[in-house]
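Please review the protein record below. Let me know how this chain folds according to its C-alpha cells.
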Amino acid sequence: MKLRILVVILGSVFCTALTSLAQDDAPNQFATDAEIEAVKSAPSDVEVQPAVTDQMIEERLENILRATDWFLRPEVDVKEGVAFLNGEAETEEHRKWAGDLARNTQDVVAVVNKIHVSHKSIWDFTPAWIEIQRMGREAIQATPLLLLGLLLFGLTWVFATMSMRIAFALFENRLPSPLLRHVISRAVAIPVFLFGIYLILRISGLTQIAMTVLGGTGLIGIVIGIAFRDIAENFLASILISIQRPFSLGDLILVGGHEGVVQRVTTRGTLLMTLDGNHVQIPNATIYKNVIKNFTANPKRRFDFLVGIDYLDSASKAQEVIQQMLEGHEAILNDPEPMVLVEELGTSTVNLRVYAWIDGSQYSAAKVRSSVIRLTKRAISDAGLTMPDEAREVIFPKGIPITMIDDQRQTRHPVEQKSSKPLPSVEPETVQNESEGGFSSEIEEIEKQAQESSPPEKGANLLDTEEKQ
C-alpha cells in the first residue's frame, strides 16, 4: 500500500516537470510574424555614443590643435555643426591639415577655415635652431653605431692588410715580377675591404647604400676603364714587360725611333738615356706594341761600310789588302770573321762592302768603324790602288761655241804628263788617334751621365728584381 502511494507521488512530480518545460519553450515555437520580421530588419548603424554637442566639438578640436604645437592661439567655434577655425599656422600644409581634421570630426557639417599662415621675420633663427637640436639628438643617438662602425673599419683595414701581405708572401718566390705580385696582393685585399664596408653600412642601417656600393662597383670599374683607357693600357703593358723582360737595365735598345740606354721602367713608361745625354720617356703601351732592337742582348755587333776602287785595279788584291788590315786590328773579332765582298759595279768604281764584328760591351761601334775606314784608305793607297771619284756627265743644252784660230798664230804648249804612280799615303800608321779617343764603349759614360741627372718621374723600378715592395 505504501509502495503504491510512493509511485503515485513520483509520477505526479514527473508530469508537473514536463508541463513546465513545455510552457517555457512555447513562445519560441509559436512566435508571431511581426516579431520574425523585426529580427530580419535589424538597424545597419547603431550609435552607442549619443550625438555630441557643439561645445564638445569645440573642446575636442582645440585640444588637438594645441597638442600639435603647429598653431598659434588656435580657436574653434561651432554653431549648428559648422566649425569656424581661427588662429595662425606656420605653413600652408598645417592650415590645410586643420581644415581636414575638422571635416572628419563627428557631427561637423561644414568647416570655415580662417586660420592664416604667419610670415616670419628674416631674422627669425628658430627653424635653424630647431634643426640643430634635431641633428644633435640624431648625432647622440647615432654615437654607438658610429663607434661600432669605426671599430669595424679598423678591423677591416687590418684584415685587408694581412690578406695583402699573405698573398704577396705566397707569390714572392713564384712570380719574378714585383709589380705582378703587388697587383695580385691588392686584388686579394680589395674584396676583403669592400665586404667590410658593406658590413659597416648594413649595421649602420644604410642597407640601400650598401647595396648601391656593391652594385655600383662593377659600373664604376667600367666607367674608370673607359675614362682612363690609356692609363690602364700602359699599366697592363708594364705588367707584361716586367714578366716577359724584353730588355734589362743598362741595355742599349732602339724602339719607336728612339735609341738609348734603359734606365728604369715604371707603371707609366720606360725611361731611356739617349747617346746625346737626354732623357726620353716612352709609354709602355708604345714599347710593347713596337719593334724593339736590343743591341746589348748579344754583345757582338757588326758594322759595315762601302769603298770603291778603280776599274783598272784588281778587286781581289783590294779584298786581300783590306782583309789583312781587319785581321790585324785589335778591336775586330776573328769569330765571326770579317769579310770583304764585291757588292756592285758602279759608274766609275768597283764597290766593295766591308763587314766587321766587335764586342759591343767593350768597344764603341762608331769609334771602331771610324778607325777601320781610315786604315782601309791607307791600306789601299799603300798597295798602289786608287779610289777614283764617281764619273759625272756634263750636258750643255745650247751646245759649245768653237772659234777657229789661225795656224800661224797657234802656239803649241807641251802637255804635262801626269804620273800614274799613286801618291804615298799621308794617313798615320796608328790604329787609334786622338780624335777617336780610344775604342771604349760609351755605355759607361751614359751610365755616369744618368747617375748625375735627376729622373723625370718618381716610382718603383719594375725591372729591379731585388727591390722590396
In short: The first helix runs from residue 2 to 29. Residues 17-48, 408-421 have pLDDT under 50 and may be disordered. DSSP finds twelve helices and twelve strands in the chain. The two ends are 129 Å apart (CA to CA).
